[in-house]
Specification:
- The chain is built from three helices and six strands.
- It has a six-stranded antiparallel beta sheet with strand order 1-2-4-5-6-3.
């Protein structure tokens, strides 16, 4: 990964109005991997104080797609993904770490671990996602 690649990926993320609304940021991008982070504020929680499942799904979807883009090229679309919630998400930061499991010419299978980070820096796994991403061109 070069700084230029990460900079371009950050510009793509910033072009998504919903990503800007959530305050999402890419902290790693390249070689089949992407890491997306979201600071967890009150507006992103559900009625019991846990991070809303929609926020977790958003983070998984984008991290899966960015990771696949490192293998398939920049024009990619999520074909589908599943998410398994392991435990309620609490903490100060949500981290979505995605890695390409397999990539062909037109599609990639990607796995994403979703973790929360607390005030002490302790990471806790809260969900796991897997998806298929397609090359949008050709």
């Amino acid at each position: 990964m070069t700084a230029l690649d990460l900079d371009l990926a950050r510009k793509v993320l910033d072009a998504q109005p919903f990503s800007r609304l959530l305050g999402a940021r890419l902290t790693a991008f390249g070689d089949g991997t992407a890491v997306l982070e979201v600071g967890l504020r009150e507006e992103l929680r559900q009625q019991n104080g846990f991070v809303h499942g929609g926020v977790l799904s958003y983070a998984a979807d984008n991290a899966l797609t960015f990771a696949a883009g490192t293998a398939l090229g920049g024009a990619v679309l999520t074909a589908g993904f599943s998410i398994q919630y392991v435990r309620p998400a609490v903490g100060r930061t949500l981290v979505a770490r995605a890695d390409v499991v397999h990539a062909g010419r037109r599609q990639a299978v990607v796995r994403c671990d979703l973790l929360t980070v607390d005030e002490e820096g302790t990471e806790t796994l809260c969900a796991v996602a897997q998806g298929t991403v397609l090359a949008a061109n050709g």
